[in-house]
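Forwarding the complex inputs:
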Amino acid sequence: MSIEIYIDLILVIFLAITALAVIYVRNLFAVAMLSGIYSLLMASIFVVLDAVDVAFTEASVGAGISTVLMLGVLAITGNREKISYKSSLLPLLIVIGTGSLLVYGTWDLPMFGDPYAPVHMHVAPEYISNTYKHTGMPNIVTAVLASYRGYDTLGEVGVIFTAGVGVLLLLSRKKMNKHTNAKNKLEDKS
Amino acid sequence: MELVISHINYWVAILLMMIGFYALIARGNLVKTIVGLNIFQASVFLLYITFGKVSGGTAPILQKNTELYSNPLPHVLILTAIVVGVATTSLGLALVVRIYESYGTIEEDEIAELDSKEED
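Prediction (whole assembly, two chains):
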């Protein structure tokens, strides 16, 4: 058993504590900071699990941009969560039920790091042995993302573009209303 | 002990998923709901990256004197999912700001109250 499994163990325990803290803390500023910590811990785990490209993205996008966006929203909406008096028994039961079903499902999953797990048998070895011949790139993740699956990445750009247009439309509506109100007033005067 | 070590990542992923799920369905504050959604998403990322790990393997960047690499395909999937995740987060937060502009609150029950008053 290698040392990386113990590092992973410590980091996932930190991760669970951070996620629980997000539920309990009522100050939304602290919640935004905790979600940044959560993403950073997640990025560290990705490094331990050999997913360095994913760790880069998670650290910059999850811990960086998401936190900045959330702080921007909190600056507008205020940072106190109201204490709610509604019963949380039913959600708790649903969550525990779903969780135990999922844990029951993990009994069939392969051992952590098993090199003979089905997921490593079929397609991945071909990519690992042929990527350099086909694309000349040593980084297999980049090669698959930008070369083999380039059209999927184009679709991803489409998704982000749609989200950006959606955000712009949602946030510019109020100003547009003001503009039309001013225009209506001008027309009334004339 | 061996079972715990070999399955702990799956169990933590499920625990995180359920914490995010709970924040989604039990909390009335819209910003906290979105944080819950993020926790839920990231737990799925953890699950996939765990599947891709090969013990004794190294990061899937080709180099000399190395034969064993972790599986690069889950990494590619999750790389795409992270970026799409931040797009949904930003759209959700924009909706929160828009709701705050219209209602002056981001608590679900207060919004429902204002809605029912408007109908009367």
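Chain B is about 75% helix and 0% strand.
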